[in-house]
Amino acid sequence: MASKIPTIKMHNGVEIPIIGLGTATNLEAPNVNELKAAFNAAIEAGYRAFDTAAAYQNESIMGEFFESKFKEGNLKRSDIFLTTKVWLTHLRPENVELSLKSSLEKLRTDYIDLLLIHGPMPVKVMTLI
Predict the structure, then answer these.
(1) Residue 107 and residue 63 in contact, taking contact as beta carbons nearer than 8 Å
(2) Would you name the residues annotated as active-site residues?
């Protein structure tokens, strides 16, 4: 495995790797095998920070990949820094919680290291009549 990527220590003591893999694609249904190969190549290169979002449609694939890596025993959940995002239409408090729970389930983890608002901007959620 590659050498350890340096980290930056935040004010709360959490360390974030200075380089991570962003996993956005063209927002079409992702190719599972290609994504898993990319995740594996990133791990082998020393990456430990991974950025995803519900909108990328790959949280389940990432969850499955990391679950299998953790079972192999060479990598622990605490070795990985996971970032995901809440989509613009899910910013009401009750929807943020639902979005987070969905991401936790898909990523097969009990915590997210960093939860962001995906491209914050004013959005009025319309209701259909």
Answers:
(1) yes
(2) 56
Amino acid identity of residue 93, one-letter, is P
The identity of residue 67, as a single letter, is E
For residue 20, the 8-state DSSP code is E
C-alpha span between 7 and 1 (Å, rounded): 17
pLDDT > 90 in the chain, percent: 60
Separation between Cα atoms, residue 105 and residue 78, nearest integer Å? 17
pLDDT of 2: 58
Whole-model pTM: value is 0.85
Domains annotated on the chain, with CATH: 7-117 (3.20.20.100)
Whose tokens are 């380089």? That residue is: 19
Angle, CA of 16, 106 and 30, to the nearest 5°: 90
